[in-house]
Amino acid sequence: MRPARAFFPSNSLPPAISLHPAPPFYSIHPRQPVSNRHPSYCDNYESLAPKDCATMDFAALMSKEISKAKGNSKSSGPGKDKDKDAPEPSKKYMRRADIEAARVAAYHEEQERAQREREERQANKRKLEDEEAERKREREDKRRKLAEESKKRRDKEEEAAERERRRKLGLPDLPSKSETKKTPDDAEEEDIEEGDLVEKLRQLDEPIRLFGEDHRARLRRYRRLVQRAAAKQKITDGPIPTTLEPVPGAQMIIPGKVPKEQEDRLFLYRQLGSYFNMVLSEWEVALAKRDVSVRQSFQGKQAYNAMLQSRENMKPLFRRLEKKDLDDGLLEPIVEIVHKAQQRKYVDANDAYLRVSIGKAAWPIGVTMVGIHERSAREKLHTGDQQAHILSDEATRKYLQSIKRLLSFAQVRWPPEDQLQIMG
Hints:
It holds the Pfam family PRP4. Belongs to the PRP18 family. One of its GO terms (cellular component) is U5 snRNP. The chain has helices at 50-55, 58-75, 77-85, 96-169, 177-180, 184-189, 194-203, 215-231, 262-288, 292-296, 298-313, 315-323, 328-342, 346-357, 394-413. It is mostly helical and 424 residues long. It is built from 15 helices and no strands. Among the domains are: 1-8 and 16-55, no CATH class; 192-231; 249-421, Up-down Bundle (RNA Binding Protein, Prp18, Chain A). α4 runs parallel beside α9 and α7 (194-203) packs parallel to α8. The radius of gyration is 67 Å and the shape is elongated.
């Protein structure tokens, strides 16, 4: 279908045609919607009024479009304010001096920032180092205090052990620290006059003056003599005088076996000496408490003589204890006898006495030849517990019999709770 064309009558023309050119004709496809057609297009030119077609010119259209664009720009007022507030673009061209000045300013700013960061790091590092040094100093102080306390505690333990050792050995006690730490003024105050010093040296049976010796040297010699005399072991009072220092009653409990340590063994000698002296003293007191008639009787005199004889026979044993040369073959059974007696087991103590006195030999009287033939087990007759120590020598026999007498008295003085432990 061909598009419709507008046409004019041949006898007359519209008045506007002579003034303005007619708008161009557009070929419109039949299927093209009307909305896509040009706004100035007239489908039916005859239906339009002459004045409407006359005013539809190019200038009107342009003014209309311009007014429409202005209206759109006025309606977008906030966007226009935003463009006004936006920063102006940088200059297109800049001087080299301005660029160099900006670069130098940025460099200095960067250097200052780096310097501030370095100073902050150094300050933090110094702070951490100070804190670490403070913690280290506190640890050192704490370690030093602990070391001092440990040293004091160790010194006290060593001093207590030394005092205990000297007490066991019967040596004089250690002087106190206040006595050992003396000032030179105290030493000068202890000075002795010449006449008194000579008199004291004479009392000690020492020469009053040596060749080339002045007063100070003489005073030092006198002090050494006094210390040496004080260090000498004193002879204790008792039924049997001895250099063995006595021990208190609470420390007189004797162990069941002989200790292996030398110090403990020396203390054991002191315990034995103290126990035997204690039993002899009790025996003497018990005999002194009897009536006069009993003491003057034959049996009373015989009991008293037995006590004196036992005390005299025990002296060789004390001398051996002082010299520390008692044989283990005798020391062990004696320790067992005293240990059982302190427990009031007198039957067991008597058995130990029989073992040490006559032993387990088949012939305690000393038979050595039991046949005419040599036998391999003959040497066992005189070894171990089969040896009769009571036949060793006269002194051994006497103090072993004295120990048996002390055991019999202890049974009467301290009777056992178990009646089966009473010797017959």
